[in-house]
Design brief:
Blueprint lengths: L8 H14 L2 H14 L3 H40 L7 H31 L7 H11 L1
Helix pairs in contact: 1-2, 1-3, 1-4, 2-3, 3-4, 3-5
């Protein structure tokens, strides 16, 4: 099905995935906003909302994981203040770096699967994201 721009809905959704992954929030917000305001294709509306939700989910995951080493450092400082010998924060930090790498790999795989799948106007099922996307794309 064609969009009002004259391109297929699958291509529009694939462009949205690419913009979300490579360009960030401003371009993504413009594409999602246009699709929700101007386009009537329910599948397209759901896909662009799904891409937005995935982008936000991965951003929050990165923020939480990158905040955890600060908490460990604060606890280490507090313990040192009260005379408790330092514990090895190096191991904790390496674990958090590992988690960041895992989230990065998962993000790449999810966006790659989504980008390849939406070109053919098929859907990648992501349970919780689908529930929220169905609610907001309607």
């Amino acid at each position: 099905m064609k969009t009002k721009l004259g391109i297929t809905a699958g291509l529009y959704a694939a462009i949205t995935v690419l913009v979300a992954y490579f360009a960030g929030y401003i371009g993504l917000a413009l594409l999602v906003g246009y699709a929700l305001i101007r386009e009537e294709n329910a599948w397209l509306r759901k896909m662009v909302v799904k891409v937005l939700l995935l982008t936000i989910t991965f951003s929050v995951a990165y923020a939480v994981i990158n905040f955890l080493p600060d908490i460990v450092g604060a606890i280490d400082s507090l313990l040192t203040t009260f005379g408790v010998e330092e514990f090895n924060t190096y191991a904790f930090n390496n674990f958090f770096y590992f988690l960041t790498d895992v989230v990065g790999i998962v993000e790449k795989v999810v966006f790659l699967m989504l980008g390849v799948t939406v070109i053919t106007e098929k859907e990648v099922k992501i349970p919780l994201i689908d529930i929220i996307a169905n609610k907001f794309a309607a």
